[in-house]
Design goal:
This protein has 3 helices and no strands. 72% of the residues lie in helices and 0% in strands. It is elongated. The two termini are 24 Å apart. α1 crosses α2 and α2 packs across α3. The protein is mainly alpha-helical and 94 residues long.
């Protein structure tokens, strides 16, 4: 899913607000630095998701038999390959 810059900024503010209202969370850095870090994490996850999506689409397109995007079969195959790629990505991440 693609989000506009405004939506990503809004999400970072909402997350920071939720953390700020949690008694179990204590900040040891400037609030704006933390918001910036949250923003970077969201953007990194979005880039990862876009890369996984592109990989999955290439896999589907490389099938011997054409699978029509939007069909039930395409959705099942997409979901299967997507889960495989996410699993593979998690193994690579520290």
């Amino acid at each position: 899913m693609k989000l506009s810059r405004d939506k990503v900024l809004r999400l970072s503010h909402l997350i920071l607000h939720a953390l700020n209202n949690d008694d179990g969370v204590e900040f040891f850095a400037d609030v704006q630095q933390i918001r910036g870090d949250i923003l970077q994490l969201i953007e990194a996850e979005m880039r990862t998701d876009e890369a996984i999506d592109a990989t999955v689409r290439r896999k589907i397109e490389s099938q011997k038999r054409a699978i029509v995007e939007g069909s039930d079969e395409w959705e099942v195959v997409y979901r299967k390959y997507y889960e495989e790629e996410v699993s593979r990505h998690r193994k690579v991440m520290p």
